[in-house]
Amino acid sequence: MEELKISDKQYMNLWLAAVIAISQFECEFDKEGNVVSEDDPDDPGGLTKYGIDQRSHPDVDIKNLTFTCAVKICVDEFYRYNLHKLPFKLCLFLAIMGMNVGYETAY
């Protein structure tokens, strides 16, 4: 994966958009309060955690995915779709849409 070549402000915008987008998802928790993956049979993405689904990320261990790794995945994907070049509010809107309907559809 290529190294991100963006300003600190652009990176922070992507990072913040990722955190907010992930927080929009309803997470399931275990008895200790830890976020656990969910496998809804009606979700075509399959196993999902922090909004990161197995279908779109076949090489990611969704079950053991950490919040930090989920944010990194989002930042990398947002960068790939050039969200860092957009005003923050539009970046955030597309970030949330992309996580809900899929990046190809949203962008």
UniProtKB/TrEMBL annotation:
Coiled coil: none annotated. Residues 30-102 form the TtsA-like Glycoside hydrolase family domain. It comes from the Bacteria. One of its GO terms (molecular function) is hydrolase activity. It holds the Pfam family Glyco_hydro_108. Keywords: Hydrolase. This is Glycosyl hydrolase family 108.
